[in-house]
């Protein structure tokens, strides 16, 4: 009956039926307990079914279920907009609501293009992106993503963009090492902008970590140089914080690690901690000003039926309160330390099987040696690895040869140790291909 996402229809394991959840645990129909090592696609930052989240959603449902946001407003949407702008350090001026990361990203692209159109700058139509990127599965989001299994079949539908090598510090595209690098990986991009800035709308990046593309890390200095370059050439800096936002990298938002002000950021996932769907695009004041006009052709004609709906806003407000009251950034710092220790042990125990170990905030990563096998999302061992961990009561979902842990920020140390033990036992089965 259900067409499950990212699933090979004739060669996949049957779906695991989950019936309840609490904290970092999921429970199947037989009562078996599983540790959620990926916070259910990176959303459950407080764990599952946090009582304050549940209470907030129930209270809002009893008061106001839905009202359109075109020509109307309501208290949760107003309050959340203020809280988000404050949470982002007042670097932005307006909040545009939507319902998932792809739509938040599409909105950012459309606003960026129209920002220049409203000024009569018709030549600007190119977006600059990076290899290894993933920004969602809608047409615009796929257009600015890197070449991958997710969008390859749809290439004829996508608008053209200009791609550059991902600034991945653990696998530097120009052969440098982080401590002696001056962000040389951006030299080619800067040279391109110096001759084509009149055509470029903006540069789009997942700050600090490119998630689905393989958990590719870069340092904050990359963001600093990108901001300097884009300002110099009159190009917008657009950041996809769908994965990295709400504490994932150890900051409220990843861009804050570099002390910069992007032009726009797209948010989802941790925004409501998985309780309900909601997304937002935060827009800098200078961008918004170009839409303030009596001319209808300068208005931004974009909306969704569930834009800024009360339940989603109430869930997001509750999540932000919990984030502050329970000191989630403190939890992330502790989690980072535990993961550094755990991954270091795995690296020392399996030096012939694990490489490129890296940890940042609530993200811990190690890559399998793949021999001559092409690494990627459909790596042959990924499904077997997932199954071996499930047998041990741990939910992990490798990105091809990339094993990662992205648990709830407040996961217990005992549960984290069980995750590492499951990885350890799964690695014992792994044979590096010739």
Describe the structure.
The strands form 4 sheets. The chain has a 7-stranded mixed β-sheet with strand order 4-12-11-10-7-5-6, sandwiched between helices. It is globular, with a radius of gyration of 22 Å. By secondary structure, it is an alpha/beta fold. Helix 5 links the parallel strand 5 and strand 6. Helix 3 packs parallel to helix 9. This is Adenosylmethionine-8-amino-7-oxononanoate aminotransferase.
Return residue spans where pLDDT drops below 50 for at least 5 consecutive residues.
none
How many separate domains?
2
> Largest sheet, if any?
7 strands, mixed
Residues in β-strands, percent: 15-25%
Any idea what the radius of gyration is?
22 Å
- What structural category do the secondary elements indicate? alpha/beta
The CATH C-level class name of the largest domain: Alpha Beta
Secondary structure: helix percent: 25-40%
Mean pLDDT: 93
Taken from the alpha-carbon principal axes, the silhouette is globular
**Corresponding CATH superfamily of the largest domain:** Type I PLP-dependent aspartate aminotransferase-like (Major domain)
Binding site for substrate: 41, 134, 269, 303, 397
Pathway: Cofactor biosynthesis; biotin biosynthesis; 7,8-diaminononanoate from 8-amino-7-oxononanoate (SAM route): step 1/1
Function: Catalyzes the transfer of the alpha-amino group from S-adenosyl-L-methionine (SAM) to 7-keto-8-aminopelargonic acid (KAPA) to form 7,8-diaminopelargonic acid (DAPA). It is the only aminotransferase known to utilize SAM as an amino donor.
Pfam families: Aminotran_3 (PF00202)
